C-alpha cells in the first residue's frame, strides 16, 4: 500500500510540473464542446446529447491516459522495476488515471451542460454509471497504454487496441444513459445496469493484476 501511495504521489507531482499536458486536454475538451455548440446550438434531442457527450469523453480519455506509460523512458522503467512490484505500478497508474478521468469527466459534464443544457435524467442511474464508466475507461486504457509503450509505434497501437477494449463498456454506458432519459427507472434495472458496468471494471482490474507482471518483466 505504501508503494502504491508513493507512486500515485509521484504521478501527481509530475503532472504539476508538466501542467501543459492537462491544460492541453482541458483546451481540447473546451474547444470540442464549443464547436459542437456552434454547429448545433442548444437545439438537439436528448439521444444526440448522450451520443456527443460520450464521444467527447472517450477522446478526452485517450488524450489523458495514453501518456501513462508512453511518457516513461526505459531508464525510468528500469528504476521502477528495481524499487516497486509490478502490481503496485499498475494499480497506482489505474488509481491515478481513474481520479484524473473522474475529474476531467466532471469538468466536461459541467462545460457541456453550460453550452448544451442538461436533459431530465434519472440521476440515480446516470451519475453512478458516469462515475463507474469513467473509472472503467481509465483502467482499460491504462493497460492498453502499458502494452503500447512496448511498441515502436505507440500512438497508432494505442488507438488500434484502445477502441475495441473500451467498446463493450461504452455500449453499456450509452444504453444506461439512454435508459435514464426515459424518466424514473425501476430499481432492479438500475442495479442490473450498474452491476454490468462494475463487472467490466472488475474484470479489467483482475486481468491487469494478472497480466501486467509478465509485460513488466519483459
Walkthrough of the structure:
The chain has 218 residues and is mostly helical. The radius of gyration is 18 Å and the shape is globular. Helices cover 86% and strands 0% of the residues. The longest helix is centred in the middle third of the chain and has 31 residues. It has one domain.
The residue-averaged pLDDT reads 82
- The dominant shape is globular
Helix content: over 70%
* Strand residue percentage: under 5%
Oligomer: single chain
Describe the structure concisely.
The protein has 9 helices and no strands. It has 218 residues and is mainly alpha-helical. The protein has one domain.
Topology:
Elements: H1 2-17, H2 19-40, H3 46-65, H4 67-70, H5 74-83, H6 86-116, H7 123-148, H8 154-181, H9 187-217
Helix pairs in contact: 1-6, 2-3, 2-6, 3-6, 3-7, 3-8, 6-7, 6-9, 7-8, 7-9, 8-9
Give descriptors for this structure.
single chain; 218 residues; mainly alpha; 9 helices; 86% helix
Amino acid at each position: 500500500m505504501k508503494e502504491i501511495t508513493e507512486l500515485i504521489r509521484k504521478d501527481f507531482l509530475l503532472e504539476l510540473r508538466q501542467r501543459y499536458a492537462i491544460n492541453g486536454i482541458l483546451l481540447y475538451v473546451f474547444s470540442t464542446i464549443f464547436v459542437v455548440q456552434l454547429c448545433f446550438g442548444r437545439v438537439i434531442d436528448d439521444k444526440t446529447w448522450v451520443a456527443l457527450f460520450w464521444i467527447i469523453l472517450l477522446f478526452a480519455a485517450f488524450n489523458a491516459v495514453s501518456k501513462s506509460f508512453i511518457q516513461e523512458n526505459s531508464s525510468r522503467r528500469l528504476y521502477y522495476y528495481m524499487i516497486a512490484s509490478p502490481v503496485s505500478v499498475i494499480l497506482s497508474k489505474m488509481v491515478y488515471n481513474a481520479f484524473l478521468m473522474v475529474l476531467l469527466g466532471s469538468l466536461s459534464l459541467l462545460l457541456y451542460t453550460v453550452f448544451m443544457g442538461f436533459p431530465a435524467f434519472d440521476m440515480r442511474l446516470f451519475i453512478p454509471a458516469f462515475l463507474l464508466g469513467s473509472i472503467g475507461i481509465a483502467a482499460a486504457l491504462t493497460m492498453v497504454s502499458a502494452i503500447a509503450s512496448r511498441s515502436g509505434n505507440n500512438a497508432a497501437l494505442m488507438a488500434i487496441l484502445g477502441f475495441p477494449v473500451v467498446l463493450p463498456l461504452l455500449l453499456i454506458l450509452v444504453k444506461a444513459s439512454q435508459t435514464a432519459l426515459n424518466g424514473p427507472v425501476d430499481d432492479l434495472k438500475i442495479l442490473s445496469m450498474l452491476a454490468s458496468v462494475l463487472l467490466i471494471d472488475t474484470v479489467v482490474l483482475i486481468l491487469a493484476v494478472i497480466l501486467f507482471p509478465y509485460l513488466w518483466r519483459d
